[in-house]
Amino acid sequence: MSHIGIACVQLEARDLEHAEEALEWALARVEEAGRHRPEIILLPECTYPAYYLHSLEAYRRSEPRPVEEVLRLFGEKARRHRAYIAVGLARPHPSGQLRNSVALIDPQGQVLGFHDKLFLWHFDREWFDPGAELPVFDLPFGRVGLMICADARMPEIPRALALRGARLILDATALVTSTGAPGARTNPQVLYMLPARAMENGVWIAVANKVGMEAGSVVYCGRSGVIAPDGQYRSMGSPDREEIVLAEIDMEAAPGPRVRPAAPDPLRTAPSGDLPVAQALQAPIPPDALYLRVGLLQMGSYPTATPWLQRVAALGETLIRQGASLLVVSGPPPGADPSILEAMEALSARWPCGWIVPFPEEDAGPAGIAMYFLDRGRRIGRYPGDGQRGFPVYSIGGGMVGVLRESEGWAPEIARSAMLRGAELLIWWVSAAEPDLYTLARARADENRVFVALAAPPGQAEGVASAIFDPLGQPLATGVPGAEHAIFVSLFRPLTRHKEMAPGSHVVFGRRPEAFHDLPG
Q1: Three-state SS at 232
Q2: What pLDDT does residue 180 have?
Q3: Which residue from 19, 55, 174, 270 has the highest number of Cβ atoms inside 10 Å of its Cβ?
Q4: Which of 53, 122, 123 lies closest to 92 in space, CA to CA?
Q5: Using an 8 Å Cβ cutoff, are 13 and 47 in contact?
Q6: How large is the angle between the packed helices 67-81 and 19-34, nearest 10 degrees?
Q7: What pLDDT score does 512 carry?
Q8: DSSP strand E in 420-503: where?
Q9: What's the CA gap between 112 and 75, in Å, rounded?
Q10: What's the topology of domain 3-253?
Q11: 54 exposed, middle or buried (CB, 10 Å; 0-12, 13-18, 19+)?
């Protein structure tokens, strides 16, 4: 059996003092979902007793039911409907704190195991301890992993599940929004992060979220649903109504991770305080170096080197006059004549700026393109093959810059490695821009809190083109499809120093490398 049905139960949020009502209502909605005869029923994060617990003392004063009793009630529903049930619960832990857990219950009503949220979000660290394990479960229809809400913002977590064989990830969420208008409520995870996780890992992702408001301050965005391995939603719920969101999936259509690094980077599992980025975050940026001014040359194809060089020079001079400190060429030169690279070095000597230039070379790996870093007539680096372990980052043009080529942008480990080495800007060079790449580029920017420039040739007039995204995943500039031209943008470097996604939820210091230390690549 590879085709299975999933029912995502989207629940109205209820405050802690209404925990019993929340439990009764959740069980009734499971009963409703079971009538559709799905193989899996998924409920939100902290379905019981609530997500916002106020404090440990408030939780204890509320006298919640023992977890075993709650699990027994959901287990009865699992037996009745012969379905697996995944439900989010606040679970007491021997430490005296709680764990934010999702329990997986089998069709016989037995608890197969728990996943405890690793990447705690904002205030939930006030009463929850983070987990340390990433279990994957062998079910009759395939391997299934569990994650909870903000876990998806830490790309290593779903990556670990996929590399351990999961082809379906059940995500119990409490996705919040800052938008009050019901129809406009959404979240970066809904818009691009979860689609990126599905694409880069080649997995199905099912999401169950809440709607409404909790504790008079936490507004949820709904939009529960199921995302296919191609990043497209197969079903999506509303932003403001309770409902059962259904989808049928084919587990065999999940191929697993599309791209993996050739070798692991030792920095990935290094203690956070030892990382180059940790040192960079403590170093002040001088007032006269607050901006990295980038010029992107969206270059088309040329039959010979001379007109290509002339066009690069003309567009480059225009960008220099506009204040660019770093020029990036998208679209390689026509051919691999070394004299072209020498001409580019001579050109870089004329202007006080850095250049990043693609150059076709046989030893450049599957991408077939080496990226040269030129500064005032000198070659300061080449990627790949620069003799550095991991993925090199260079100080050029007034900032710290790393590069990705072609499919390397599909592997979250590579962009992560560059950020951990101190990159503020990632140049992702591709031979053609596609809508999927925008989704991935936004995720790479947001999950690392760096700027990402997707450097691509002009492409078709009706297609997509080069683009630059800020550390929140928002577009700063996009190229004109089908047009060869220059793009200029000023990048405010201090934005890359703000690596807190929410108070206490830090991209660097919130990592839990011990949970995925044994992963390949």
Answers
A1: coil
A2: 86
A3: 174
A4: 53
A5: no
A6: 20
A7: 81
A8: 425-429, 451-455, 467-469, 475-478, 485-492, 500-502
A9: 11
A10: Nitrilase/N-carbamoyl-D-aminoacid amidohydrolase (3.60.110)
A11: middle
What is the distance between the alpha carbons of residues 376 and 350, in angstroms, rounded to a whole number? Answer: 7
Residue 179 half-sphere exposure toward CB, CA atoms < 13 A: 13
Within 17-63, where are the H helices? Answer: 19-34, 56-61
Contact between 482 and 460 (Cβ < 8 Å)? yes
Q: Which amino acid is at 15?
A: D
Nearest to 312, CA basis, from 335, 339, 331: 331
Q: How far is CA 48 from CA 141, 251, 283, in A?
A: 28, 30, 44
pLDDT of residue 433: 86
* Residue with tokens 């996705």, as numbered in its chain: 175
pLDDT at 518 (0 to 100): 60
489, 468 Cβ separation under 8 angstroms: yes
Residue 69 CA to residue 215 CA, distance in Å, equals: 25
Reduce the DSSP state of residue 369 to 3 states and report it: strand
Whole-number Å distance between alpha carbons of 374 and 376: 7
Q: Which residue type sits at 307?
A: P
The domains of the chain are located at 3-253, 266-493
Query: pLDDT of 212-260, one tens digit each?
Result: 999 999 999 999 999 999 999 999 999 999 999 999 999 999 999 988 8
Instruction: Identify the pLDDT of residue 339.
Output: 94
Q: Could you tell me if 231 and 438 are in contact, meaning their C-beta atoms sit under 8 angstroms apart?
A: no
Q: Which amino acid is at 321?
A: R
Choose among 169, 168, 95: nearest CA to 132: 95
Joined together, the tokens standing for residue 484 give 């060869």
Strands 500-502 and 505-506: antiparallel
Q: Which residues of the chain have pLDDT under 70?
A: 386-390, 517-521
Residue/partner pairs of 189-195 with CB below 8 Å, 24 or more apart: 189/149, 189/152, 189/153, 190/221, 190/223, 191/442, 192/439, 192/442, 192/443, 192/446, 192/473, 193/152, 193/153, 193/443, 193/446, 193/447, 194/152, 194/227, 195/227, 195/231, 195/232, 195/233, 195/439
User: Please, which residues have CB within 8 angstroms of residue 136's CB and are 6 or more apart in sequence?
Assistant: 143, 144, 145, 161, 164, 165, 166
Rounded distance between C-alpha atoms, residue 19 and residue 255, angstroms: 40
Strand ranges, E, within 340-377: 354-360, 369-375
Question: CA 518, CA 270: separation in Å to the nearest integer?
Answer: 13
In CATH terms, is domain 266-493 a member of 3.30.450.40?
no
Amino acid at site 485: H
Whether pTM > 0.85 for this model: the answer is yes
Q: Give the span between the Cα atoms of 393 and 236, in whole angstroms.
A: 39
